[in-house]
């Protein structure tokens, strides 16, 4: 049986025309049922002929991730623990803000990068997720929103479990499918992909024009990055910055850099000066995030004083800096805290 949610628009047309012997327009109807209306079975697709529904049921299936646990934070953040078909578990988070939700999506089961400050990184890597599994998180999220009369899901960020660029082929297919107006209908400006950065993959991502990149930098020098992100730092900071300088931006576009402030590690004014030296001449903005200690924290949360001093210094050097509010910290749903309860 084929998991029909793994087909992009072209593959679905091919399946409908060549394997089912149906006219092409049926694929458009089917696509709309799967992605716009969130149908979980073929029987509910009322504008498809009974014979076609029977054919679909015999040859294909619609497999959504199973919702194992829902946890709600006091700030309104909602975390889902999802079980995939093979029993593997991943987490995805709905983040409230300005009358809408943003969903933080996972792209891998676990993560191979092993960043020292990240709970997911300490899980190790199990496997890449499929398009059906990645977009299935949105289907589950939207259904939950509908059932609970919550605000609309408007934006998605690939900032959950995994390193998206190590699953690049699937990610490109996934984001192209997300862009489709007859389906999930997310324009590229509503999609952000977070990555530690790999020059070759960044070039392909830039040429695709499917999303906005956010670079997990977290250190202003190669030496410090190698300490806290040893695997990411295998790409030298000079090579990463050169690749980002080549990244195709729109006229007023800027690269976003994510900088996680770790108490006593990378949060001094000296570090801020080094960051200005690195980014000062570049078209950029910085998202500052205060470290969220997980269950067995290796680091301490930075003091409020150091956070504000760091932010103030960057602004004084004309670097647009946004202090990101940590959402869902009390339910282990904040940045760097995602970790499935058990792996397959």
Overview of this protein structure:
The structure is a single chain. This protein has eleven helices and 14 strands. With 344 residues, it is of the alpha/beta class. The chain has a ten-stranded mixed β-sheet, with helices on one face. β10 (191-195), α7 and β11 (212-216) form a beta-alpha-beta unit. The chain is elongated, with a radius of gyration of 21 Å.
SSE string, helices as H and strands as E: EHHHEEEEEEHEHEHEHEHHEHEHE
pLDDT under 50 segments (min length 5)?
none
- The helix-and-strand class reads alpha/beta
Walk across the major sheet and give the strand order. Answer: 3-4-5-6-9-10-11-12-13-14
For this entry, give a set of tags.
34% helix; 10-stranded mixed beta sheet; 11 helices; alpha/beta; two-stranded parallel ribbon; 344 residues; 14 strands; 21% strand
Strand and helix layout:
Layout: E1 2-3, H1 9-19, H2 25-36, H3 50-59, E2 60-61, E3 66-72, E4 78-83, E5 89-97, E6 100-104, E7 108-110, H4 119-123, E8 125-128, H5 131-147, E9 153-158, H6 168-179, E10 191-195, H7 199-208, E11 212-216, H8 222-228, H9 237-245, E12 255-261, H10 269-279, E13 284-290, H11 304-316, E14 320-324
Parallel strand pairs: 1-2, 6-9, 9-10, 10-11, 11-12, 12-13, 13-14
Antiparallel strand pairs: 3-4, 4-5, 5-6, 7-8
């Amino acid at each position: 049986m084929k998991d029909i949610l793994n087909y992009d628009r072209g593959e679905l047309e091919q399946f409908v025309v060549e394997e089912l012997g149906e006219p092409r327009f049926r694929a458009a109807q089917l696509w709309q049922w799967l992605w716009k209306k969130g149908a979980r079975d073929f029987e509910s697709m009322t504008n498809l002929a009974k014979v076609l529904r029977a054919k679909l049921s015999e040859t294909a299936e619609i497999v959504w991730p199973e919702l194992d646990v829902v946890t709600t934070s006091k700030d309104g953040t909602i975390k889902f623990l999802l079980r995939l078909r093979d029993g593997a578990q991943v987490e995805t988070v709905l983040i409230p803000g300005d009358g809408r939700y943003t969903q933080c999506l996972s792209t891998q089961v676990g993560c191979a990068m092993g960043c020292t400050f990240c709970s997911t990184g300490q899980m190790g890597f199990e496997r890449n997720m499929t398009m059906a599994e990645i977009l299935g998180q949105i289907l589950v999220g939207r259904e939950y929103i509908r059932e609970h009369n919550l605000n609309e899901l408007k934006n998605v960020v690939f900032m959950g479990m995994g390193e998206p660029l190590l699953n690049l082929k699937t990610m490109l297919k996934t984001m192209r499918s997300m862009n489709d107006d007859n389906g999930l209908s997310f324009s590229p400006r509503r999609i952000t992909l977070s990555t530690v950065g790999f020059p070759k993959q960044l070039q392909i991502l830039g040429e695709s024009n499917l999303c906005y990149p956010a670079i997990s930098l977290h250190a202003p020098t190669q030496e410090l990055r190698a300490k806290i992100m040893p695997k990411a730092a295998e790409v030298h900071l000079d090579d990463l910055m050169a690749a980002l300088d080549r990244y195709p931006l729109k006229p007023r576009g800027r690269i976003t850099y994510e900088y996680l402030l770790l108490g006593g590690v990378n949060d001094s004014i000296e570090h801020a000066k080094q960051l200005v030296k690195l980014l000062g001449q570049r078209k950029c903005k910085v998202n500052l995030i205060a470290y969220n200690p997980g269950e067995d924290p290796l680091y301490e949360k930075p003091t409020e004083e150091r956070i504000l001093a760091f932010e103030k210094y960057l602004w004084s050097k004309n670097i647009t800096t946004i202090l990101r509010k940590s959402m869902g910290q009390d339910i282990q749903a904040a940045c760097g805290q995602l970790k499935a309860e058990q792996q397959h």
